[in-house]
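Usage example:
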Amino acid sequence: MSTVPSELAVETEPKGVLPTGSAPTPARRVITTLRKSPAVVVSVCIIVFIVLLAVFAPVLSAITGWGPYDYDPSAIDSDLGGIPIGPLGGISAEHWLGVEPGNGRDILVRVAYGARVSLMIAVSATLITTTFGVIMGMIAGFFGGLADQVISRVMDFLMAFPSLIFMIALLSALPAGNRPALLVLVLSIFGWPYTARVIRGQTMSLRNSEFVEAARASGARPLKIAFREVLPNLRGTIIVLATLAVPSYIGTEAGLSFLGVGVMPPTPSWGQMISTAVGWYAVDPMFFLIPGTFLFLTVFSFTVLGDNLRRVLDAGDAAS
Amino acid sequence: MKKRTAFLGLAIATSLALVGCTASNTGSGSSGGVSGEPVEGGTLHVLQNTDFSHLDPAQGFDGGVNNFYRLIYRTLTTQGVGEGAKGTEIVPDLATDTGTPNEDATEWTFTLQDDIFFEDGTPITSADVKFGVERSLDPSISIGSPYAKIVLDMPEDYQGYYISGPLDTIETPDEKTIVFHLNQPYADFAAVVGQAPFTPFPADGDVTTTSIDQQPIASGPYRVTEYQRGSTLVLERNEYWDAATDDVRTAAPDSFEWTFGLDAATIDERMIADQGADQDAIAGSVQAASISRIQTPAIQERTIQGLQGCTTYMPLNTTKPGMDDPLVRQAINLAVDKQAVKDGTGGSQLADIATTMMPPTVAGFAEFDLYPSEDSKGDPEAAKALLAEAGYPDGFEFTLDIRNNPKMQAQAEAIQQALAKADITVDFNLIDSATFYEVIGTTSQQHDAAITGWCPDWASGATFLPPIFEGTQIFEKGNSNVAQLNDPAVNQRMTEIRAMTDVDEANAAWGALDEQIMELAPAVPLLFEKAVMVVGSNIAGAYAHAGFSGGIDYVSVGLASTD
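Running the assembly step on the lines above writes:
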């Protein structure tokens, strides 16, 4: 039983011979351990809440009676530059979290629709970067040689690139089109090497482990070894990487929207709302605080969950 | 050709901080606040977001910089002083009157006053005025006001003084007289010679194409003593300027000092706080977010507002399928909720609703509303009926070019939301601020509609309607007729009005033409935006000048006390 020399060491029980045979015991162990941590429980609750908010945004809109694009001129004061009428940014029975200054759109409904956009983009980008990153990382790590050289250099290139600046430039230059899809694409182009690099390292050490040697000796073809022997042993790493990728993409998406190159108006987006709120911070701080809080909680919860997952999986390593 | 970009500079360039000698506070209960008479002396500090475009009057062309030019330059005529129409009236400046035309207004004679000097004490002669115009026609610098190029009679290949030499069609029979020959009858030529490129420069000096932008030669009450681009600009008195020769400029402060590069929000904060040296400060238009904070009586007392004299409108590209049908364009006009557009812009304090293309500050302005709705909130039902009549019973879809800035996005979203009620889908094409006017001014790149603005170069329909609606002014690049309207009746009428020699008759005709054009609905007039400025508590003589995009008239403003 060898431990994997990696910062992201994960479960390495030498049971790779059972390719699809999932390991119920470790999974249950991880869940049990995580449930004991209050931070994780709270994080998961927040994530579930935000996901529900996003999924049921249309229902929420029907309940409150306000669509994400509906103007409510009666909720703002045209003579005072369009600030919301009432305390705390116009919080009332009508508008539960107040309204946007200047147009009177309902903040709660827009935050809910904004969550849809944020989560959709972040989850799609995570799926793409994880899939692509794992495949590229495994090819580089498992086959080595020329493939490794080429893939590693491409990864070095992309990681050394000033990606944020390039994203801004690329998104400004691209035609309007389908912005969320473009964002996913741009985030994925610059995001996959971070997954692939870790996977490559893990694969390289797994390649020399005994069960792989055994499979090789028994005449299995390289591709079969890679996907049936090595990949199952990377599950833990992949889960952790993906959990940590989601908040980073949410943050980046919000940042790009804040800078005006992300999701196009009037599509609601947290970053955009925060950007609009900057000018109003003095007279209507709630407009800034509400989307800011949602963004903070989402990113924070995913990060706490990811960190704990990693810790538990690491510990499980030593325990098993 | 004065575009919205131009006066944005002014809007941002808001605050003037008067530092000067005064250390004391409010003190004097003497004069009547911001509109009272300023006292002589003191230093006026101006806090501004962006630097002026150019110090060379041949190159700068926006409300903000034209306002500034009057401090250091004089022209044969200029705009008056005072609020509203008084400010946009053309009055004599270097000349003794507003010029004498020949019978068909193709030849104009001006006589210079006595005792007018440059900053080094040399007298200003008619040859200097002639040289100034010839210099401004050099292709490398002629990016400012285009009227000299348009109306002066000159060879087609004339390229300015440095390349083509002196121009024969500007005659200087003696030192005090100058005669301009025009290529067409032009009744409004008195306003043309008030444009910045007609600024005199010493004909026998060392003036080159680029030297003025570096070191201007003053003919007005102040001269530039220190200039660091993007950072500071200091003006001090030009001792050779004689107040007796100048009925326009009060020029009360001893010096002006600009500080550039301040954040717009910072400027608002400082003006509201009114602390220390900022008590002697003036500022440009505040941001919408600051409006509610300036409602206290103490701040209202030092708040100035005025129309920018421009129209914010949505041209509809009449060459695009669907948009070429006047019924569709009328439906869009009916459906737009102008009240929501106004609220998004900053509400009633920062904008009035427009129903005409020409703003009220333009001479001959006639009020009408061809597409009325209750409270200007739009009439989606009537719009739907028109759309059905035009053959679009299931709705219509078009793409709107908008600039990537919060205010314009708020306006665009309000339009989108209102049109959605009439089954008209609006898609946005968000364009980077820096290239926005270039894109919508390129006929092959523009889409079905855009949101833009237009300001007259002087208060006449002649500088308002033709550039944005005349068929002959459609250019592949640098096009300002964004609607690409090319209507024979409208074109014909414009030619007729231009031939009128009676200015009042022409102005009235422009007002009537505005209504004729709006029947075709090539654009949706949205707003007449206003400038709202908070000035320091020690400011006097400040008012919004309609000829300079509603900016505070620099030549009239000063300090209330210099204790």
